[in-house]
Design goal:
By secondary structure, this protein is mainly α. The chain has helices at about 50-60, 100-115, 115-125, 130-145, 170-180, 185-200, and strands at about 65-70, 80-85, 95-100. The chain has a three-stranded antiparallel beta sheet with strand order 1-2-3, with helices on both faces. A hairpin with a 5-residue loop joins strand 1 and strand 2 (about 80-85). About 40% of the residues are buried.
Length: about 240
């Protein structure tokens, strides 16, 4: 995949609402524990016609089942969309937070190609606290999808995304969850984003400068960040 700031990389073929989900590639199912925390409210704002046109401009299509925009670039372009648990053609789709920006996907693919997931899985196996945080992210994902009404999609019951709760399998899915939910929810998604910020490209900087200006939507009213926060001042 291309480095951040270069030409857009092709969208990932798996976990793509434009294609049926592969049950063999789904994350490890896990039962929802009794007494689970209240269902989280979805973090999204409405997808405008300009948003859908902008997604199609970059991907060549609009993913099916889009319910709204879960995270935007600082320029206003959609980066993560919230997707229905069942697509319009009836396909069950567990990846609620789908990364639609190929610039972002290309940056994350560079980290995957570096062997980072292997390192993450080794740490996951060795650190009980990290394993607990990863499992908690899985439960958060399930709660957020339940708030969208997934009770009639039994095919994906207990299935989240990205390898949760026991593996690290797809940094795109984990980063998409981290962007939608905000910091402190998905530890490996947060780490992925932080590593990319340290490289100086996306998400620390907008990669869309060469594209036409995107109409800015009204401010989001969700419970989480709608855009990448501006970097704060450096240490004195």
């Amino acid at each position: 995949m291309n480095d951040p700031g270069t030409n857009p990389a092709p969208a990932r073929a798996h976990e793509d609402p434009a294609d049926p989900a592969d049950p063999a590639d789904a994350s490890t199912p896990g039962p929802r524990p009794a007494g689970a925390a209240p269902e989280a409210a979805p973090v999204r704002d409405a997808a405008t016609p300009a948003d859908l046109a902008g997604i199609a401009e970059l991907l060549g299509r609009v993913p099916r089942g889009v319910l709204g925009v879960a995270h935007r670039c600082s320029c206003g372009r959609p980066e993560v969309v919230e997707t229905a648990p069942r697509l319009p053609d009836g396909t069950p789709f567990p990846t609620t937070y789908y990364l639609v920006d190929p610039f972002a996907a290309g940056a994350i693919s560079t980290l995957e190609a570096s062997g980072l997931m292997r390192e993450m899985n080794e740490r996951l196996a060795a650190d009980p606290d990290l394993a607990a945080a990863h499992a908690a992210a899985h439960e958060d994902y399930l709660r957020r999808r339940a708030a969208l009404g997934d009770a009639d999609v039994p095919e994906i019951a207990g299935v989240s995304a990205g390898g949760m709760p026991t593996r690290v399998k797809c940094l795109h899915a984990l980063a998409g969850h981290a962007l939608a939910a905000g910091p402190g929810v998905n530890p490996f998604g947060d780490e992925t984003l932080q590593r990319l910020r340290e490289l100086g490209g996306w998400p620390a900087t907008c990669p869309h400068a060469a594209l036409p200006e995107h109409p800015r939507p009204a401010p989001a009213t969700g419970a989480g960040p709608a855009t990448e926060p501006a970097p704060g001042p450096g240490p004195a």
